[in-house]
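Priority: medium. Attachment 1 of 2:
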């Protein structure tokens, strides 16, 4: 039995501080465990995060844990998880109480491997801009923004309502003494900015970079940089360019591509300088995408699971397709028989048609040559077009073409000019990374 489960068993069924009854374990991480608890007087469900016993003996871990509670409470934004209480257990472990969230994190929301629709991705990113912008206004940098720390709930009929979690390694300006050295690297490698990866000083623009990585991942199901080791990933953040997202999402709009490219700039001064600036561009893209027709879903997963998810609809479409196919065959055969019968009736009623079909017209009589030709005599030869029209049909032509030689000429292919290739304009160059 793991230490996490053993620690959970010790608290299950107990009442913390005489008012929080611990009912179940919701999850556990490197520093703490999260429980589901009910307030014994209010009959309200909460989530309680308890710092592990070994971490409680580490002063830095204790300070970070307390800072997480203080930072989240100080921001006071609806998209930041609400923390309502803080205390210490009899064994010395520290805990804080936060709102109980029912929903999924961004990992589960994108776990099917299908790219997220643009409107939904923009909707989530816009809310993240609001939450992190509020934190930046009071000098708090999250610096660990990743899918696990973005929770989606249904609040008052509002789907995908965002809650930002875990300010445990948040950097607080104007706060108490720093908990880490400036050269210490903290964060999750796939979502760390270049300056964070290199252990340099960071500011609020490192969260803008991480949000660009989240946008890239939501739309393409891939992260911009990946490797076998954390060190290799950090090296790519600092020195390599991200793979252009339109290689994975060909139908992405130029506006959204520019937004992601600007968020992922290596130098902070070339990124968006505030979450409000980023949010304004995302809202413009969201409005433009709302007026565009939805692109066809080319993902093989969507087509593979369509029959199982809607069996009646699929069976109906298949039956209608088969009926239409066989109906078209029957209708074509009926029309062909009718045409043959009509042709036979016309031939029987008008015997002259038989002779016309089989006997080519006699050539016109040759004009009598004149032995005396005057220089002033007008040219009485027929026009070239008329001469061609009265010539005898070639031996291989059909009787129908003999009766109407103009039809044969109309069947000749017409030479069409080659289309001119459109040269790329300067507007198509969207971002220096691409």
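Attachment 2 of 2:
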């Amino acid at each position: 039995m793991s230490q996490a489960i053993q620690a959970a068993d010790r608290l299950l069924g107990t009442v913390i501080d005489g008012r929080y009854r611990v009912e179940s374990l919701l999850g556990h991480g490197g520093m703490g465990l999260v429980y589901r608890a009910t307030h014994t007087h209010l009959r309200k469900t909460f989530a309680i995060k308890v710092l592990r016993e070994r971490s409680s003996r580490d002063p830095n871990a204790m300070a970070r844990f307390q800072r997480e509670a203080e930072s989240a409470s100080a921001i006071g934004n609806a998209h930041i998880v609400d923390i309502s209480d803080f205390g210490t257990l009899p064994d010395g472990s520290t805990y804080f109480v936060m709102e109980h969230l029912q929903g999924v994190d961004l990992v589960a929301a994108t776990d099917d491997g299908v790219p997220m629709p643009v409107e939904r991705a923009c909707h989530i990113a816009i809310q993240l801009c609001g939450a992190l912008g509020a934190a930046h206004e009071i000098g708090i940098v999250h610096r660990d923004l990743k899918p696990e720390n973005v929770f989606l709930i249904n609040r008052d009929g509002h789907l995908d309502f965002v809650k930002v979690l875990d300010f445990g390694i948040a950097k607080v300006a104007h706060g108490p003494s720093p908990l880490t050295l400036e050269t210490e690297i903290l964060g999750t490698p796939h979502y760390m900015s270049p300056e964070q990866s290199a252990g340099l000083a960071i500011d609020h623009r490192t969260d803008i970079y991480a949000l660009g990585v989240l946008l890239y991942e939501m739309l393409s199901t891939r992260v911009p940089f990946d490797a076998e080791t954390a060190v290799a990933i950090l090296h790519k953040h600092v020195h390599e360019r991200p793979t252009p997202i339109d290689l994975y999402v060909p139908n992405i709009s130029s506006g959204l591509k520019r937004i992601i490219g600007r968020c992922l700039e290596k130098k902070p001064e070339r990124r968006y300088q505030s979450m409000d600036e980023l949010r304004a561009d995302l809202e413009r893209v969201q409005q433009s995408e709302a007026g565009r027709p939805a692109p066809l879903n080319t993902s093989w997963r969507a087509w593979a699971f369509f029959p199982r998810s809607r069996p009646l609809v699929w069976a109906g479409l298949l039956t209608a397709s088969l009926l239409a196919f066989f109906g078209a065959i029957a209708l074509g055969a009926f029309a062909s028989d009718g045409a043959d019968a009509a042709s036979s009736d016309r031939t029987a009623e008008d015997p002259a048609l038989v002779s016309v079909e089989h006997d080519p017209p006699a050539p016109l009589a040759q004009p009598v040559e004149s032995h005396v030709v005057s220089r002033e005599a007008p040219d009485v030869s027929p026009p070239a077009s008329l001469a061609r029209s009265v010539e005898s049909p070639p031996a291989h032509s059909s009787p129908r073409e003999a009766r109407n030689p103009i039809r044969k000429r109309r069947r000749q292919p017409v030479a069409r000019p080659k289309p001119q290739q459109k040269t790329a304009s300067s507007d198509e160059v969207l971002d220096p990374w691409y």
